[in-house]
Amino acid sequence: MEQALRALDLCVVVDVAMTETARLAHYVLPASSQFEKTEFTLFNFEFPTNYFHVRAGVLPPLAGTLPEPEIYTRLAVALGLLPGDNVLGPLREAARRSRTEFAAAFRAFMGENPSAVAVGALVLYHTLGQTLPDGTAAAAPLWNAALACAKRSPQAVRRAIGASDEVADHQLGDLLFDTIVAARQGAAVTRHDYDEVWTLIGYSDRKIRLVVPQMLEWLARLDPQAADAPKEFPFMLAAGGRRMFNANQIFRDPAWRRDDPDGAMLINSNDLDALGAKDGDWIAVESSVGRLVVRCKVDDAMRNGQLALPHGYGQAYPAPDGERLVNGPRINLLTESGNRDPIAGTPYHKNVAVRLALVPAHEAAAHQSQSERIHMSAPAN
Predict the structure, then answer these.
(1) Domains along the chain?
(2) I need a surface site. Which of 152, 178, 221, 288 has the fewest CB within 10 A?
């Protein structure tokens, strides 16, 4: 991926920080952080009641930053993909007058401008969005979703938002949308009866399709022998394990990790003894495409020949002296993209064939020194 990005004639990245991806770009368009813009949260843990949360910004954006919808809208206008205010202005004025008038104008506009369908969300952001309260313009594309939800499950929407019988079905979508946008603690969008669950299945016979022919054909061709580790790479590495303090890569500050600061590789004690290393040593992990030096940690819950490394490490962070150092293993350097699921194309991150090797004393010392610098700890006596 890094080679592909470097090979581009033009690479533009939208990001909230100077990340590894941003550093590969010719231009970086700085976005506002999640505290400075409208974003959404949607979970279905409370079924049969479903909630949607429009989270408005709580802080003013930093100078020079914009929310992503504004960035993409300006780019789309500049590229000629989205009409300017001379065309969209009347739609915005219709939205200010009434939702009914806007709905008619929007449908007419989209019918007359089929090329705008691909950027319909930006049309809504630039028109209806500018009339929404509390800086929630980014929520405008939810309008179509609210209309569709109310049309599909009118009774569930009525229960959720407490709509009276006086509210006509064709008004439910707008009422649902306004409820979602106005609520700052999240809003119930549907409340189902369990007898209604089967109506949520899209097939007319309300049966779930369990048979996926392409998957069954693929499973029939699987050869268990082919899954064995090759002789030159006798260990199988599960790359990308979840641990206590690596849930989110945005937490770059190593001080946030109260355990496992180096992202150690878990290994069975028998395998470590056979290698001639001990718990806490730095050892090399090599796949067919890459090499990492990692700290090892004995874990006899691992089977012989099985290894594990966590995700969320391998990012640059400034040491106390300002130099940017890589904190922990960059596990994707071991990933061979051709060794992948033939249906989805996802590399086998949890089944990476590798070999282990001792590292020279000077290389181990360099990694130990880097670890101490980035974690601001004194060298061991």
Answers:
(1) 2-199 (no CATH), 232-374 (2.40.40.20)
(2) 221
